[in-house]
Amino acid sequence: MSLLELTPSGLYCPQADIFIDPWKPVDKAVITHAHADHSRWGMKHYLAHHHSEEVMKLRLGQDINIHTVGYNDPISINGVDISLHPAGHIPGSSQIKLAYKGKIVVVSGDYKVEDDGLSAAFEPVKCHEFVSECTFGLPIYKWESQDLIFQKINTWWKSNADQGRNTVLFAYSLGKAQRIINNLDLSIGEVFAHGAVWNTNQALIANGVKVVDIEKVTQDTPKNRFKGSLIIAPPSAMGTPWMKKFSPYRTGICSGWMNIRGARRRSAADAGFVLSDHADWEGLITAIQATEAEKVYLTHGSTAVFGKYLQEELRIHSVELETLFEGDRLDASED
């Protein structure tokens, strides 16, 4: 890479002297989205989308030096035009476009191509070089529509309620939790949030993201309030004493990994729903082809298999990048 280089601190644009999603403290960082593997503590200056501001302050500290911009609102640094474009991953998630002397490089961060109704929908950006995740870069990963998945979730919840059981659903506190909340059938019962989810909801609402404002679970919430309800919690709450207050209950987990036989059993959940905020195999291919990029750099996931497919089947030159980005993890404790 020339406009963009991989350094020990992360992806670096020497012309603009900026890093994109650096994993070590640097002077100037452009952030694709607020998940912990892309937005880290210790940068002197942050640049991100408007919808990421309050969540980043919640996670990194209210005193961080952050400047935010909207989508397609370019700024210029030392001749490099930098702009953010919707990635469709979570609220505020952005593809970072760098344009300099006729060359365009796009760093996608994490993305999905299905419009979830919560995040700004993914918009392909034509470029010469494209940095793409491939968390689910295997042909076995093929997502059903979210409408169908939420129909399954609501049916399962109602069945639990009819049997006198409460429902605890585990999902990342940023992005997936709000996506679920906005698509629940509230005629079935009340919906409550773990503190980590509720705090994230409030940060997003403060930034103008439309999230159904549900009640937080507290020590003072009477146990009878939970009868027939659905509680949204991060995966880190699974199996902790916090869960006792909801008994009797059934548990479910929302993750792209539920696509794999045995993943639900290993997670110890009663139900698994294949819901991911990352692109599946076809989504990755669709997104990459739409960029018309001459070269694609692949990060985290099935980089070898997906890269081989790009080169041998689609005749797109691909290069694997060793980064510290983690993508979707079944055992994630924060996101």
Automatic annotation (TrEMBL):
The EC number(s) this enzyme carries: 3.1.-.-
Keywords: Exonuclease, Hydrolase, Ligase, Nuclease
Protein name per UniProt: Ligase-associated DNA damage response exonuclease
Gene3D superfamilies: Ribonuclease Z/Hydroxyacylglutathione hydrolase-like
InterPro entries with a match to the protein in the record: MBL, RibonucZ/Hydroxyglut_hydro, Xnuc_lig_assoc
Top-rank taxon: Bacteria
GO molecular function, one term: ligase activity
